[in-house]
Amino acid sequence: MTSVTQETTVPSDQAIEIQRLCHTYKGGHTALDGVDLTFGTGLFGLLGPNGAGKSTLMRIICTLLEPSEGQVRVCGHDIIRDRRAIRALIGYLPQNFGAWRLHRVEEVLDTLAQLSGLFDAKKRRARVTEVLDQVGLSDVAHRKVKKLSGGMVRRLGVAQALVHEPRVLVVDEPTVGLDPEERIRFRQLMSALGRDRTILLSTHIVADLGAGCRELAILDAGCIVFQGPPSRLLGLAAGQVFEVTVEMADAEAIESRYEIVSSTVSGGHVTLRGVAEGGQLPPSAAAVAEPNLEESYLAFMAARGRTSAARQDDETLPDAVETKGAA
Length: 327
Prior knowledge:
By secondary structure, this protein is an alpha/beta fold. It has helices spanning 54-61, 83-89, 105-115, 121-134, 150-162, 180-193, 230-236, 248-257, 293-303, 307-310, 318-322, and strands at 16-24, 30-39, 42-47, 69-74, 77-78, 90-93, 168-172, 198-203, 213-220, 223-228, 241-247, 259-266, 269-275, 286-287.
């Protein structure tokens, strides 16, 4: 196993505790290889390339998939022995939530609330109203799901995950297919919800984590290669991210040698921000004093020789394919 070694004794106040977790599918593919993670209240980000094993980990935590080896506890409950108890504590928004297209928003949430055990009609109506207001869908409660925007459908997915008031919210690749404005709204919602509960949000899009992320882990090829606060990842990027302004004719040479994060054209010049492996900056470039999280992630992955994986910007999700038929 190649994962980062961590302490096996975890604090009792952690909402999710994962120790030496491994999972190999029947075809022989190892999706998780010795994962150790712990986290409590707040927004926790699970970052990694497509196919890193994120969806497999989510499904295991939500008791939808039994691991090959290792232990997972949610609020003190073992995922194998205490599945019923864990499902009452967890709200889950999978990658693909888009059914119920011919039903009205409030009908969908009312039905799912009943399936979650909210049988008292008066209390259920009150809870449905409360959750729709919480996710900003009160104004479209009578609208059919097929009439919602992509962002609204994702917020309905959050609502169904919240309706039974779970202590832990698990959100898998939440902004795939959303436009930039909808992604911003979704990040703001996650930050607000994370103030009084545990949210585990998995993504291959660094910007999804937002400013509300208290801690993050990087999962790569089934192994945890980093866990800590975003500030620590930012610190590791010191001296690795540069900015340089050059003439247009000279930009191509730099772009061919370095991973460029952004470029800004002004007149006949272009300003490039990029990652320099080993801190070897381009001529006339200056190290960026305060890299952002995306740049820091790219610098971390570049140091591991995994830049191409980190730069994935397509929205196909190979890890989701791994889980077919595995539950």
